[in-house]
Amino acid sequence: MASSSLEELSIATDVLIVGGGMAGAWAAASAAQAGARVVLADKGYCGTSGVTAAAGPGHWWVPPDPPAARDAVVTNRVAAGLSLGEAEWMYRILDQTWRTLPTLARHYKFEADDEGRVNYRAVRGPEYMRALRQHVLSHGVTVLDHSPVLELLARADGSIGGARGLRRQDGGRAYRIEAGAVVLAAGGTSFLSHLLGSQTNTGDGYLMAAEAGAEMSGMEFTAAYTIAPAHSTMTRSMAYAFASYFDGDGNELDLPFGPDQTVRLARALQRGPVYCSLDRLPDDIKARLHTISPNVPLVFDRWGIDPYRERFEVTLHNDGTIRGIGGVRVHDTDGATSVPGLFVAGDNASREKVAGAISGGGNVNSAWALSSGVFAGRAAARVARSAKGRAAELRPLGRTGLRPLGQSKAVDVAAARAGVRAEMHPFDKNLFRTGAGLAASSRELEDLWREVADHGQDGTLALRETAALLATARWSVATAAARKESRGLHRREDYPAQDPGLAARLLSGGLDRVWVALDRPAATNRPDQLEVAS
């Protein structure tokens, strides 16, 4: 860990929440409501960091009555998930979101719809996260802003008992937190695509979970690309459902809105520049766009462009696991991992059980972040109660970027991060995958990983982030190579059809040696695992 002349800060608590975005905030409040002492440590500032604060998220919001309404929504989602979603989980997420979101009314003013009914489904991201911070503080949670966690701490039996990190606004002072249980809600990663709000999302929670012995799931489903104006990271796609597209010669392109639009647009971009006009956006949405999604028109206002009459160049950004699916495998219905004392929520957890093989988009992902945070926070509080009075010596679990396998020396962090982008962003490598392309990406990423794992020791946040990015990219490439079919967000040019034998989730893990295994869903939660790649 990076050195500081200041004495290490020592804190004891019942539950530690790592991450202060939507999922982390709901987890912290829920753990506190369950009677636990709670500390929330965020890499940024809880209330502004993460992708929610820069968005206008909607939630998966379906009334419980009549029951047929939820039945229809779940049935459709199960079918769209291509055999990887589970109806039971979907019902639980819908129910928890319906019961929990209105409780924020003390801190957030929910607007009324055109018929005078309170609209809980859609929220304004900046105000939502500001309200969640107040919600957290009102329940007595201790919030450590600008305090990235660098590694987890484990007891002798392997259960998680805390974490260590840095206080960036206190001279880089090290801190150590002993806790009865830990919830990882550190977000996903867009592999440094500069997706709005994702600056702090570098996959740190994935790396820390793997170092503790947890598995990943669904890491092949990272090819989630979203449209944005060229030279901008404004990936808010709702308005583009009403767009017209043109090539560089002014010829209109056949890019109808739908599940295949991203692939068609990517192929068009491979041929040359693509231009867009929001000329078909309904007048009522135009009138409200500055209110419901103010960041979208802001780009055009600054450029002096009228997007409803003029054409502007567009591109696609990779959203990785943020709008993709993969993450730490959820081992039980309460957000537990396979490691005792360790829970996951939000983008830090795999969403396959509710999203299946396709993106959850804004509504499912938001409902998942809220509900999984509630589940994990409550469960962590229960575990913490049972761990009280259990004194134990804790050992640090961090490896790559903290404790090198070989002789320490300076590592070119910028080059390693650029290497991740080079393998995880291009369409021909990540969207239109082939066995040969994935093998080439694997070799590049392995070389970069070896350099960091063997020699990196400075313990800086940048180096640990780089290790997390590399680990996440390696799991993504390995699972994509193992899934020799096309399913949902995962597309193989050399295997364009679905394989019924792969209608199951793929687990992955490992640090120095990546492994992939087939996880066939089972009601007993004891999946039949079959190694399919290494």
Write up what this structure looks like.
Strand 5 and strand 6 (about 175-185) form a beta hairpin. The chain is α+β, with helices and mostly antiparallel strands. The strands form 3 sheets. Strands 1, 2, 3, 4, 5, 6, 14 and 15 form an 8-stranded mixed sheet that branches. It has a 5-stranded antiparallel sheet with strand order 13-7-16-17-18, covered by helices on one side. It has a 5-stranded antiparallel sheet with strand order 8-12-11-9-10. The model is unreliable at about 520-534 (pLDDT under 50). It is about 35% helix and about 15% strand. The protein contains 15 helices and 18 strands. Helix 1 (about 20-35) runs parallel beside helix 4 (about 125-140). The protein is globular and about 70 Å long. The relative contact order is 0.16.
In short:
The chain has 15 helices and 18 strands.
How many individual helices?
15
Mean pLDDT: 93
Cα radius of gyration in angstroms: 22 Å
Which percent range describes the beta-strand content?
Answer: 15-25%
Estimate the global geometry from the Cα principal axes: globular
Task: Give the tally of β-strands.
Answer: 18
